[in-house]
């Protein structure tokens, strides 16, 4: 019997060791993700009620059920912000992924020169924080400081309004290109480098050109990386905030509720409506989750067939 107990102790220690190492991560996950999400859901069911009537009415917080959710879904500013984000995504996502794939394919060609320098140069803008990049491009968009506007005035080409409609969406998409192409390129390029070179050699022996190899071999084999970067881009697009919020003081085209996250910030910290802001946040988070799952399922079927 003692021998049996002694034999169990090493097995118990071996089973507990992974949990011991994972404990700090689990604690941080619960403190900074699970609890804040739970508190946001709790706040979304609460709101202000007026007790009493006339001039002596008193605002108190109370349970309001799904009233905040219905208000958020029926809010025209929130719905309009979702429409602006979708229009921005139609422009930004294909541009970012297309350029990232192009640069990855070019860097993966056999006789490319300065591959390391080029990879670093393309990735480097990603290291610049989004707010700083938005400020830099914002001053380049302003008519008084933009070199492009200066050249247009010198050539009598007329004023250029980078903040008008629909130029504003392309201006924001350009900031997304600046900061997002390098990150996505690294993911796709890493996936390309994992493909066995024997496949390329066999294709070249069969007479395939580099363009044919890229189109018929490389792109289909890096489809999982394209799906991953696509999901990242969709999630980042729906969470658009820093770029329009940073450019807002430079133009009157961008309102304080131009995108959903700006609307949520306005409700929480300007209108003092934490319940409405929490409900809108939950609606946005659930929408992102559902859309991500649908896109993932769709691309899995297209990439791996019905067995996915």
UniProtKB/TrEMBL annotation:
Primary location: membrane
PROSITE patterns noted in UniProt: ABC_TM1
UniProt GO BP: transmembrane transport
Stretches assigned to the ABC transmembrane type-1 domain: 82-295
Pfam family, one: BPD_transp_1
Transmembrane segments: 20-42, 85-108, 120-142, 162-189, 221-241, 277-299
A GO CC annotation given for this chain: plasma membrane
Domain of life: Bacteria
PANTHER family linked: ABC TRANSPORTER PERMEASE PROTEIN, DIACETYLCHITOBIOSE UPTAKE SYSTEM PERMEASE PROTEIN NGCF
Family: Belongs to the binding-protein-dependent transport system permease family.
Protein name: Multiple sugar transport system permease protein
Organism name: Nonomuraea thailandensis
């Amino acid at each position: 019997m003692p021998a049996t107990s002694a034999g169990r102790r090493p097995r118990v220690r071996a089973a507990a060791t992974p949990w011991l190492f994972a404990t700090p991560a689990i604690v941080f996950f619960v403190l900074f993700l699970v609890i804040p999400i739970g508190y946001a859901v709790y706040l979304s069911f609460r709101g202000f009620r007026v007790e009493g009537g006339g001039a002596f009415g008193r605002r108190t917080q109370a349970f309001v059920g799904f009233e905040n959710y219905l208000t958020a879904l029926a809010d025209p500013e929130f719905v309009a912000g979702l429409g602006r984000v979708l229009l921005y995504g139609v422009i930004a996502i294909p541009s970012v992924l297309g350029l990232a794939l192009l640069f990855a394919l070019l860097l993966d060609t056999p006789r490319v020169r300065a591959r390391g320098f080029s990879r670093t140069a393309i990735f480097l803008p990603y290291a610049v924080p989004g707010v700083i990049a938005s400020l830099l491009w914002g001053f380049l968009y302003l008519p008084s400081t933009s070199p492009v506007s200066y050249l247009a005035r010198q050539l009598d080409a007329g004023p250029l309004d980078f903040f008008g409609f629909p130029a504003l969406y392309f201006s924001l998409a350009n900031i997304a290109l600046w900061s997002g192409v390098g990150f996505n390129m690294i993911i796709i390029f890493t996936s390309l480098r994992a493909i066995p070179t024997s496949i390329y050699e066999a294709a070249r022996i069969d007479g395939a050109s580099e363009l044919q190899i890229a189109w018929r071999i490389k792109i289909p084999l890096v489809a999982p990386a394209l799906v991953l970067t696509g999901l990242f881009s969709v999630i980042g697009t729906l969470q658009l905030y820093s770029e329009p919020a940073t450019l807002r003081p430079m133009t009157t085209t961008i309102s304080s509720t131009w995108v959903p996250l700006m609307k949520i910030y306005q409700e929480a910290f300007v209108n003092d409506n934490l319940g409405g802001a929490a409900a809108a946040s939950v609606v946005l988070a659930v929408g992102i989750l559902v859309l991500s799952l649908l896109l993932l399922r769709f691309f899995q079927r297209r990439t791996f067939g019905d067995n996915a």
